[in-house]
Amino acid sequence: MDLRSLELIAAVCQAGSLSAAARSLQISQPALSKGIGHIERELGLRLVGRSGGTARPTALGEFVAARAEPLLQAATSLTREIQHHLQGESGRLIIAAGPATRVHPLRSVIRRTAAAYPGLRIETRQVRGPEAARGVAEGLYDIAITNPETAEPYRDLIRVKLFEDRLAAIGRAA
User: Fold this and answer.
1) What is the per-residue pLDDT across 124-144, written as a single tens digit (0 to 9) for each?
2) What is the pTM of this model?
3) Helices 18-25 & 29-43, crossing angle to 10 degrees?
4) Which of 15, 72, 122, 157 could bond 21 through an S-S bridge, CB–CB 3.0 to 4.6 Å?
């Protein structure tokens, strides 16, 4: 038995009749009847009782539908999660950062990323500069916030400037 079969049975039980179930599934009533008949032949059981031009779920049909409901909900949830994952809206992101970048820039990056992708689980790792680039290159971290110089040995890594630095070095003239 497949998920579509379970969906047909659950729809009949929820709607209470074949015609109402067919409308809710947006299929024809003959197509629904044929699908139910196929399931009943496959299982060797009567899931829908037919009499006097009406069709209603049997007790066994109700039992199957009740057991099918959590499976159908899980399948729907899984489909939604896969779509979100493919669109980059869920999953896990590991960000490596040094002690200084954890204070201001990292908070800002996490806040903006979490707002844009609410299903994304963000984790951080505090590392020293050279460890950050090496960790990204080795797949330990997804991204790192660090000085561009630490990525020099790893030419295949993508570099994106996040902030304009407002710091300046000052000194006395000789």
Assistant:
1) 898 887 888 889 889 898 888
2) 0.51
3) 110
4) 15
